[in-house]
Task: inverse folding
DNA sequence: CAGCTGACTTGATGATGTAGAAGTCAGAAG
DNA sequence: CTTCTGACTTCTACATCATCAAGTCAGCTG
């Protein structure tokens, strides 16, 4: 009952991941306030003071998150100007940021289902045109939804299998 | 270019989320080491010392994560016994834990695409039977893949719209 | 040009996460 | 019964996160 490890990966004791994408993603996204800023960006928020108010955070935290996310290329900073006001910056999601949609709404879906009373959170993600509920899930090329037992992992690089069993080779 | 906010949600200045599922999920999952333990659980790891070795963490951290995840109902602790050894515990994903698959592999997918050199991480998620690549994404009831512009959020509870514009009502 | 406002930056404090090292404890091996 | 080992717990030290408060600074308003 788990994801299948294919080929040289099969013997889990023999290899080690030292550039795991999950760990790298968590270094970038692992703070609660970061995820809240991203949530707001997905909801369409773009301006500094709106991020502060809507994430219920302080300006200091929001400023540091926006700075970091901009440096990483997840948000892009663009100047804008309202009549009679001075030039400000707005923060828009880049393609890299938009690709976080499955992560952010995946967290929402799981939190609503398992952490909220009655398995129901305050908001539901639906299809815009029909109002039908939307799920975040693993999906094959031809559109079937896939469970854990139908998935496998393959290595993208050759693994040189260590003969010792205490440490394993890195891939 | 963002998720549409429907009905009473449309005016983002007028409401506030104070039981956000994303924030709740991040309080539970927001640590790097937690996600690594979950990664291993999805790869089929069940025993204490395997978690320690494979996540490359210390036993102290792994013990505290396993304890927390067990208390939360994400892992279940079960005794097992090998011949000539004493009784140990193994940690298996519950349904609640298995539902994290889109989150964990969503992070992997994003990290591989955007944080790894050449957009390619060490491991790829594929369909077990065919070897075809698998994606984590938002999907409608009838199987179409949905982008940000095809999604909307609806409120599950009535929102009483505050007349003041500084704070907004909670939902 | 003085004041005000929005968008930050800086600093202090406490909580949590990470890492290393050492201590505890049940129970099979000898 | 003593030793040893695996599975934890405890302790210390340091980095990062979160909250609060105060300071800076460009440039529009009056």
Result:
């Amino acid at each position: 009952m788990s994801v299948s490890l294919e080929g040289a990966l099969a013997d889990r004791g023999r290899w080690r991941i030292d550039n795991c994408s999950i760990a790298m993603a968590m270094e970038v996204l692992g703070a609660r306030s970061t995820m809240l800023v991203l949530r707001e960006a997905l909801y369409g928020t773009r301006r500094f003071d709106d991020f502060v108010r809507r994430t219920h955070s302080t300006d200091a935290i929001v400023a540091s998150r926006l700075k970091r996310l901009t440096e990483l290329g997840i948000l892009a900073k663009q100047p804008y100007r309202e009549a009679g006001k001075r030039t400000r910056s707005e923060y828009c999601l880049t393609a890299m940021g938009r690709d976080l949609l499955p992560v952010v709404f995946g967290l929402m879906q799981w939190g609503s289902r398992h952490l909220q009373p009655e398995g129901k959170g305050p908001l539901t993600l639906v299809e815009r045109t029909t109002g039908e509920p939307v799920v975040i899930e693993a999906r094959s090329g031809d559109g079937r939804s896939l469970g854990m037992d139908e998935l496998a992992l393959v290595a993208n690089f050759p693994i040189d299998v260590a003969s010792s069993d205490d440490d394993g080779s890195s891939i």
Q: What stands out?
A: The CA atoms of residues 17 and 170 of chain A lie 6 Å apart. The longest helix of chain A spans residues 59-72.
